[in-house]
Specification:
The chain has about 775 residues and is α+β, with helices and mostly antiparallel strands. Strand 4 and strand 5 (about 185) form a beta hairpin.
């Protein structure tokens, strides 16, 4: 009986096992049929493979300086395409070992991964991956990132088709150039540039392992976002390479011991954002949105070192001017929790919304007293400000300080670092400049722009003050009037009254112009009138030659005369000009009398090297391009050299220690605009400082104090290695006594005096001493 019962039990268990097997088998068969049906169904809804077989990677627009360094990139994706043949073998080995060790053996699909993902998704489990490199290429190039059965199956089908169409190396090339690696960078070439600041071929094994590990978690585990997580991934990559015999133990250990140095400065190589914007607009006008995806390169005429020097000089001048202004109060006020941990977290979150700056660092006051501030910077560092660093805000730290000005815990303000003894850094409270400015320099022989700074910071707005800001040039406009006067009988030695205008002088009703120094010094030479920037001398010169002649002569320098006044205020530079226009006009003095057109964009080149645009070569400077006689240019330059030697710009020659500098300061009424325009051998430059909404820069400010230092610092770099060059007088001028005249006036006959002084001057005064060969 028991034996029968045992047999029945075993028979029952057998039936259960068989039944289970049949059910499982049936499920598997049904699953396989379902999978086959789904594959067949989705195979009719697959994209064309041209995107992969005729790969054209989205490459950003790059703007470059004329001598090579990068100025800017535009486009949502940063990518540096690198052919598989030039990819380092260590990188290929690292990626294959980490992402798909069987890459060279399989047919593009990990069926086990496909099935596992399908079962997990259908059952509501956690999402599954385990895609091959080929599947990852399929997903990246053709499919969405949504984790669904449909996407996984289509991924497998596309992968199989890719394997049939492309070689393994071609598939690997797609992956290595297409994969996202964080920080808006795509592809390993961009990863090398972004994180290490060098081309892919220059990476060592430790660096290769770092970027090979990025694709798994590029947003949160890259060296900039989380260095610790990135290093853990790098070590995993090295371990995988060791286990798959791609490297030996010695190479593995050496790579682990290698110190990684990241490209911490992730800004442009050349600070020229206004230049970049001009280039971007030019390309966009031609290509539209394609400009940002087809790897267009724009080569400008900018010289990198000169651009850096000009940018630094303008910022230095504006910061220095701002230090002379009263405290306007914190930029913002945050409420910080009482506990230290909460306050640190709240300050960090608040600083994310603030715009940091390389020179003017944004920070939040964590603790404040009358003697010191503890300030947390956007970088995460906390610094102490004390002593002279508090000069600007001493009153604002007192208990009775007005609420709008008070500096207390939670105040958002700016700090500037200055070097201190023994390598330390001293911090000072500063303000973001209210004034702004521009600088532009040209090659006067070709019109090529050598440097262009459109403002203190492009991040505050794209307005380009070098090309768009139309302002009164003040006395920096006078050389163009003087040059015109030399062609109408006025000579450098002509005497002119520096006296107030009389009511019968033909002046403007209720207009009583004076001089910037508040003095009238009586009769003086035209030369001294420009050197000392005497307004009444300029006005009387304009009266003497007449407005029509003056306007006609000034127009030759390229000014839009519709924007210049038609009365005597023309002599004082009350019209409207841009720094770029002034630079081109001063270029006529610098090149001997020829008009040149400013050129910024040299050429635009497609990713395949095809030239889409190229600026025509500069025209030869000959009589066809001449607008001003060489004699006129020489006389005007002789005056402007004296301006930089003993006049309002004497600091120029004193600082640069060379005599071949020519130019003129300019300061408009109430010091609303400050200018300096001038030239030196091979380069012409113009600096302007003012407010975007015109208002006084300060009672004691001037072009010589504000704009001239910018010009000097920019020129110091531009003239490095350039020998001193004198001006050879043309045959049409002669030296008579202590000054120069046009040859036709060697024996006299020019206008000897203007104003009341002329009434006391006999015709003999306009005669001449014997002509001499002396130079001036």
């Amino acid at each position: 009986m028991r034996r029968h019962l045992g047999l029945d039990a075993r028979r029952s268990r057998g039936i259960i096992v068989i039944g289970t097997l049949l059910v499982v088998g049936g499920v598997l068969v049904l699953g396989a049929l379902l999978l086959a049906l789904m594959l067949a169904w989705y195979s009719f809804d697959l994209p064309d493979l041209d995107k992969a077989t005729e790969y054209r990677p989205r490459q950003h627009l790059v703007v470059l300086a004329g001598d090579g360094p990068e100025i800017a990139q535009f486009g949502s994706e940063r990518r540096v395409f690198v052919p598989i043949g030039t990819m380092p073998q260590t990188l290929k080995d690292a990626v294959v070992a980490t992402e798909d060790a069987g890459f060279y053996e399989h047919n593009g699909i990990s069926w086990r991964g496909v099935a596992r993902a399908a079962v997990s998704n259908l059952s509501g489990g956690s999402p599954q991956g385990a895609s091959t490199l080929t599947q990852q290429v399929a997903r990246t190039m053709f499919l969405s990132t949504r984790r669904t059965v449909e996407r996984k199956l289509k991924e497998a089908l596309i992968a199989r088709r890719l394997e049939n169409k492309l070689t393994k190396d071609e598939i690997l090339e797609l992956y290595l150039n297409q994969v996202y690696v964080g920080t808006r960078a795509y592809g390993m070439g961009a990863a090398a540039e972004t994180y290490f600041g060098k081309p892919l071929a220059a990476l060592n094994l430790a660096e290769v392992a770092m970027i090979a590990g990025l694709p798994q978690n590029p947003i949160y585990a890259n060296p900039f976002a989380n260095e610790a997580a990135a290093v853990r991934r790098q070590r995993w990559v090295l371990q995988r390479m060791l286990r798959t015999d791609k490297i030996d133990q010695a190479a593995h250990d050496a790579a682990l011991a290698t110190k990684l140095t990241y490209r911490r400065t992730r800004g442009p190589d050349v600070p020229a954002q206004h230049v970049a914007e001009m280039a971007r607009r030019a390309v966009f006008e031609q290509l539209g949105e394609r400009a940002y995806t087809e790897g267009i390169r724009v080569f400008t005429s900018i010289r990198a070192d000169e651009q850096r020097a000009a940018h630094a000089a303008l910022r230095k001048a504006l910061i220095a001017h701002e230090r002379r202004q009263p405290w306007r109060g914190p930029e913002d006020q945050e409420t910080l929790p009482a506990d230290a941990t909460g306050a640190e977290r709240a300050a960090g979150l608040a600083l994310r919304d603030q715009r940091d700056d390389d020179d003017l660092r944004v920070g939040i006051v964590m603790a404040a007293s009358a003697r010191e501030l503890q300030v947390k910077l956007a970088s995460g560092d906390t610094v102490t400000v004390a002593g002279e660093g508090l000069r600007l805000v001493r009153a604002a730290l007192q208990p009775q300080a007005p609420a709008a000005l008070a500096v207390k815990r939670g105040a958002v303000l700016r700090l500037q670092a200055t070097p201190a003894p023994k390598g330390a850094v001293s911090w000072s409270v500063v303000q973001w400049p209210e004034a702004d400015g521009a600088y532009v320099s040209l090659d006067p022989a070709t019109g090529r722009v050598r440097a262009l700074v459109g403002g203190f910071s492009f991040s505050r707005g794209p307005f380009n003050r070098a090309t768009q800001a139309r302002r009164q040039p003040g006395s920096s406009f006078k050389p163009f009037l003087y040059a015109t006067a030399f062609e109408h009988g006025v000579m450098p030695e002509t005497l002119v009254d520096d006296l107030p205008l009389r009511t019968d002088d033909g002046g403007i009703p209720n207009w009583n112009p004076g001089n910037s120094d508040g003095k009238f010094d009586g009769p003086m030479s035209v030369r001294d009138g420009l050197v000392r920037s005497k307004n009444l001398v300029s006005i009387r010169i304009l009266q003497r030659i007449g407005l029509p002649a003056a306007r006609e002569g000034i127009a030759r320098f390229g000014f839009d005369m519709k924007r210049q006044p038609v009365d005597l205020t023309l002599a004082l530079g009350t019209g409207s000009v841009t720094p770029m226009e002034m630079a081109a006009a001063y270029g006529v003095f610098a090149n001997g009398g020829h008009r040149v057109t400013p050129v910024l964009i040299e050429r635009i080149v497609a990713a395949d090297g095809k030239v889409l645009f190229e600026a025509p070569p500069a025209a030869a400077l000959d009589e066809a391009t001449r607008v001003v006689p060489p004699s006129t240019v020489f006389l005007a330059n002789s005056l402007m050299r004296d301006v930089t030697a003993r006049g309002t710009a004497a600091r120029a020659q004193a600082t640069l220690q060379r005599p071949d500098l020519y130019g003129k300061t300019g300061t408009t009424n109430d010091a609303v605009d400050a200018w300096f325009g001038g030239w030196a051998p091979g380069v012409v430059g113009v600096a302007w400082i003012g407010h975007d909404e015109p208002k006084s820069l300060g009672e004691r400010e001037s072009g010589g104090g504000l704009a001239l230092p910018v010009w000097i610092e920019a020129m110091a770099r531009a003239l490095r290695g350039v020998p001193v060059q004198g001006q050879e007088p043309p045959e049409s001028v002669v030296s008579v006594g202590n000054d120069w005249r046009l040859f036709e006036y060697a024996g006299g006959g020019f206008i000897g005096a203007i104003g009341s002084v002329a009434e006391a001057t006999t015709p003999a005064a306009a005669a001449s001493a014997p002509a001499q060969a002396a130079s001036r």
